[in-house]
Write a structure and sequence with these properties.
Elements: H1 4-14, E1 21-23, H2 28-33, H3 37-46, E2 49-51, H4 60-70, H5 84-87, H6 90-110, H7 116-127, H8 134-143
Antiparallel strand pairs: 1-2
Helix pairs in contact: 1-3, 6-7
């Protein structure tokens, strides 16, 4: 029994693809008799023709992967895509460093370890990129007798 016309009409009426049209196997004879859109609409209302539910994409695997990555797994050299600076941009690196240095300078000033003049000098040096870390800055200050 060829039901391609009925299937096509039903797909058009239900606004779904041909693969999502379901025809009741018990009522095939009845469906084959419907040759107009009106006939097919009646069969849809009677329940002889239905639209199958849409298939979703399962997120199970992606959630499992995300959980592992959260734990620090799957991040070896084989999983690395992009350059070193693409994964952690230069600007981000600079921002992290300078914020740490400035916070440390403020703490030192508030604790009266350094005076305002020294603070300003070290602040400018940090801005110019003279120190690569807090320890380097503290070593510099100690070596040049800037800490009280």
């Amino acid at each position: 029994m060829n039901l391609t016309t009925q299937k096509r009409l039903a797909a058009s009426i239900l606004k779904v693809g041909l693969n999502r049209v379901w025809i009741d196997p018990e009522r095939m004879e009845e469906v084959s008799m419907a040759i107009t859109r009106e006939g097919v609409k009646q069969l849809i209302n009677n329940g002889a023709i239905k639209a199958k539910p849409q298939k979703g994409i399962s997120t199970y695997r992606s959630k499992k992967l995300a959980e592992k990555k959260k734990k620090g797994k799957r991040k070896g050299r084989g999983s690395v895509k992009g350059a070193k600076k693409a994964r952690n941009p230069k600007k981000q690196e600079w921002m992290t460093t300078i914020r740490a240095l400035r916070k440390d300078l403020k703490e030192m000033r508030d604790a009266n370890e350094i005076d305002a003049t020294t603070y300003r000098k070290l602040y400018k040096m940090a801005k110019g990129g003279a120190f690569r870390s807090k320890s380097y800055m503290k070593t510099y200050a100690r070596d040049h007798d800037l800490i009280k």
